[in-house]
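Re: your question from the hallway

Yes, I did run it. Sequences:
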Amino acid sequence: MAQNELYYRDYLQLDRILSAQQPRSAAAGTPAHDELLFIIVHQVYELWFKLALYELDDIIERFAQPYVPEHEVATAVFRLERIRKILELAVAQFELLETMTPLDFLEFRDLLHPASGFQSLQFRLLELRLGLDEEERVLRSYAASLDERDRARIEQVRTQPTLFAVTEQWLERMPFLEVGQYRFWSEYRHAVHRMFERERAAILAHPALPEQEKQRKLEQVDSNAAAFEALFDAERYEELRRKRLRRLSYRATLAALFLMLYRDYPLLQLPFRFLDGLIRVDQQLSLWRYRHAIMVSRMIGSKVGTGGSSGYDYLLQTTIRQRVFADLAQLSSYLLPRSEIPPLPEQLQAQLRFAFELAGQG
Amino acid sequence: MAQNELYYRDYLQLDRILSAQQPRSAAAGTPAHDELLFIIVHQVYELWFKLALYELDDIIERFAQPYVPEHEVATAVFRLERIRKILELAVAQFELLETMTPLDFLEFRDLLHPASGFQSLQFRLLELRLGLDEEERVLRSYAASLDERDRARIEQVRTQPTLFAVTEQWLERMPFLEVGQYRFWSEYRHAVHRMFERERAAILAHPALPEQEKQRKLEQVDSNAAAFEALFDAERYEELRRKRLRRLSYRATLAALFLMLYRDYPLLQLPFRFLDGLIRVDQQLSLWRYRHAIMVSRMIGSKVGTGGSSGYDYLLQTTIRQRVFADLAQLSSYLLPRSEIPPLPEQLQAQLRFAFELAGQG
Amino acid sequence: MAQNELYYRDYLQLDRILSAQQPRSAAAGTPAHDELLFIIVHQVYELWFKLALYELDDIIERFAQPYVPEHEVATAVFRLERIRKILELAVAQFELLETMTPLDFLEFRDLLHPASGFQSLQFRLLELRLGLDEEERVLRSYAASLDERDRARIEQVRTQPTLFAVTEQWLERMPFLEVGQYRFWSEYRHAVHRMFERERAAILAHPALPEQEKQRKLEQVDSNAAAFEALFDAERYEELRRKRLRRLSYRATLAALFLMLYRDYPLLQLPFRFLDGLIRVDQQLSLWRYRHAIMVSRMIGSKVGTGGSSGYDYLLQTTIRQRVFADLAQLSSYLLPRSEIPPLPEQLQAQLRFAFELAGQG
Amino acid sequence: MAQNELYYRDYLQLDRILSAQQPRSAAAGTPAHDELLFIIVHQVYELWFKLALYELDDIIERFAQPYVPEHEVATAVFRLERIRKILELAVAQFELLETMTPLDFLEFRDLLHPASGFQSLQFRLLELRLGLDEEERVLRSYAASLDERDRARIEQVRTQPTLFAVTEQWLERMPFLEVGQYRFWSEYRHAVHRMFERERAAILAHPALPEQEKQRKLEQVDSNAAAFEALFDAERYEELRRKRLRRLSYRATLAALFLMLYRDYPLLQLPFRFLDGLIRVDQQLSLWRYRHAIMVSRMIGSKVGTGGSSGYDYLLQTTIRQRVFADLAQLSSYLLPRSEIPPLPEQLQAQLRFAFELAGQG
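Structure:
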């Protein structure tokens, strides 16, 4: 190997990386074999979080522009897929951590006090940049466990746009809901009404159904129909938002629904994949949280965590409540079977195709 | 190939297996591409459940004997590992199911009504045979959605011993808690008291700690110590059982704790692995439930499931409440660091070794 | 549950599915516990193969049309992702099978003779429909181990179009290689030459490099440049095909390269993903083969397989040689850094965008 | 947070870890987005390798003792399981790396020259400490690509005991092959002969089998029987070792076979699991190598790797040839069905049980 040439060890800064494990148990004169596992697994988590934040920043920056060119949506889709893969690995990694038994953990656990995963700055930043609703945080005072430097960083990042916010704005700008005479929500509402009318008529016309059963089925249809009403009425929708049952704006919600219904048009394919990517990243993070809770329950039972957090119960609560894109997942409730979806006006259809396709038809 | 010889297709009965997919959408004249995926994924789940039940039955049968020879414990450990692998695959399988989007599911979803995964007999049997506490069931009336034949099978299996019950009895029979003068719980209690005394003394003797801080730390020690008390007092423990905060009997709990503390002795290694295997199977089933809940939330939003179940919320509740071996996981709270574990009397130590080792020492 | 309503068990035909396991060891009066695992794991493989074939058929049918509309490419991309997921599960499933030890397998292994996984019709159909080159088959006489019915099915499927063939034709039809005065291969060749010229000039102009080192580096550039030549010369390329070093036609190869280089244009994004999907399915199948080989080597050592196949060595050979889309993976060798990729003519660029984007610019 | 208390960031040395990523593309003024992914994925690999080496060192140290107490075998089994989990994660990690496309890699690939994964010191140490046979190395001159410091480390480690060597010695010391009059190999040989004699007799006595078919079947039995002969004859076995068809010593091979056949006795359960663990770690490393080869073929096609290695072909060769414990996997060929395994003498059986069990029988 010639001098001055790039060397694997230097490129990856391995002298730094591989010397950054200093078990406390060894320092205390009571070396515990499994502490190295514990340190390295956590360092790897932090490396994954750094990478996830980097990809997230890139997506937000692209979507924070007043106009997002179509090929940037494709890029964002790939970035989301990468974040999901990172979170999948992060989930699988618990299997490795759990090769340590609770008794082995106990050999060095008290030496770590009061340090705690609770103090992971990057994990907090990840939540912030995704756009976790601060009102839904199980523990709003989490910053108290951080030192000044980390708190300052949190405050700084808190002022930056979030993935939730830029997605909402991008959806709100989507121009296809009103084109010429066409109004998406009106067409959609009619389609929904037609669908339920047909269902009601079929029940009433049924030759053999007992009256009582008819009544039960009609009530079921009414109840299903009622669930759609909030989507047809901006005011009622805002009421749900005030009650924190919805978070995404009305306009953005309609745009997301439009994308989901008409996703087969070329122009909408990648925007649809983007929304689906958001749902899946959110879902994968939630799975990570639950896997984490399960690990904690096996490792320390009902004791409080090393940082004084209430352990399993706390993590379980974050799993359930701290979802960022639940509103998007929720929209599945409002989809229509393909046969019921109202067709788009020709003019709009043309806009959603490729220039090449139109030329070919010309 | 000669006639009368065993043929792959016949051995696996592939003519039956591969012709058992009859999409309803095709029958209804509106073929939906993804229904085959839906059917096959569910059939595979049922095949996994059959295998898991078979392994579970085998473990229960071995442990239902009045005396469980040591090599049978080893066998049970392998069986539990297999059940865990099955559940791991079952979790991974959701990734395949989710290549179907909600819109694609909607094309045949209504045709399945009112059939529902809720009606999976084998899954109910799995819960029953593991020993799910009927009082903790989120929905106790689940049998109403089953047909008579399946209900009858449930009733029959309900009379059989469960994994929880035979494990509890096996633990209760463990002879090492009292040997000659030796009483495990007394030794353990002394060790716990010594540990907390030492902690209190260290705080009081600290030269630089402000009084207020000392007080805070002493209270923390008291609170930790209090958490152990239930284990030292059979009556107090029974009180917890009455409140359904514990389920495992007091005697079985002490035996499990003994196994966890002294697991390094050869005779206890596999019994310890068995307990750990129970915790992990329980944990993996819980992860499966949560993964299921997440899938449902993406697929149908807040709508009720195809069988009328309340979907996501119901599944989430089962995830949280329906754990069978939570008491065993809980025991991590009562472990001591290795340096604090009281040594066993020589005579007992000898019993826990291999005959070969003793001969070697003679 | 009301009568005549669809029931989970009937929908999934569970009575058939769950009664199709008849261990030979039980029939022979020497029940072997692990045979049920063995049967079910193989039945699940066959269910996955059925699903994979179904998705594959659908893709081929779409691509066998004289013109493939853009949204069908999107559909094909999703289908390929699903096939990949199936193969990922199939790889993970070996972990379950390997909870059986070789000694446990031996308890029923001889009873299966001469049945063998070698006789899996569906796996052969999967290879055929993907378009496995019959000349590359390690064992061309495999059909001899099948019965007449299966052989007949093989012969029938052999006449149908393959994924390889329809992909090749689709690529050959791609209209963008020649548009007006523009010729892709000429532009590409110039870009390659320019790149190597610049590299040569930089070496020669280096002020401090010893003569010998310069010579070495120049030779390296020449060798890299030579590797590109086959792509610039249809005749030379055909020579490689005659030697079976390449399989894809020259025209299709150029079109695939075009897609890979210009994949950022909206119209090319999904076609690029399609090619990448083919590479990944091929890769995943190869991983499955290797995982299979590894399992066989642990399970039966160097013995021949139950069907008389030569086991590990045979499977290893199929892993290495039987790749269908190796030519596409190979194209990475001919990519250029983005800064070196020649720009497309304006007119062509416009065709590759969305109608909406063009309107926006107007 | 109080001062002087341990803080998460300091414990994990995150300031070092998270600042050790310096993309070359940014330094060169041409930032490539995916280089951070590339760096972090490789750093994580190195962290895993550090952990795997640490666990491996611990196992070797325990087995390098003249006598290995039984509970240390249990510890070694857990360590091997951990190493396997690490390698499983390392395989899964390629999925993340492959979210980078070849075109994206090309944006910074040339800037890394001549650094290469080939120069990973820790991976070489892992191979060395496992006991990779230097004669089987595909590229014996690999040290040439390392710098002096790394070469010196290699030389130092080369003098230390390997996992292969200490395992071989441990097996050779196993005292159960000769106890009193009992000789394992003689009993085993008789059992094998009896088995084949019975098979021959059954064929000859078959009332309906045509003469030609009988002959064919008898030849098959002879051929199977011949495969066992090497195990009955130390000289013949040494001949195989000289030809490098076997590596493990004759004595160690017999001891391993004994463990595999009698693994159900308590004393042998964990030693058997240890052997199985070795096979599985070896297998998982082989899967990692193949996954690596596949990744390289997609990423750079047939081009040479960044370090000048020949890429895919080289990695494929290492996958196939560089297995350390292939001889152990191979032993499956010599197992007997449980019904044919000769029983152990009573005296030996007693030694293989627990003291407690014997007392119980007294």
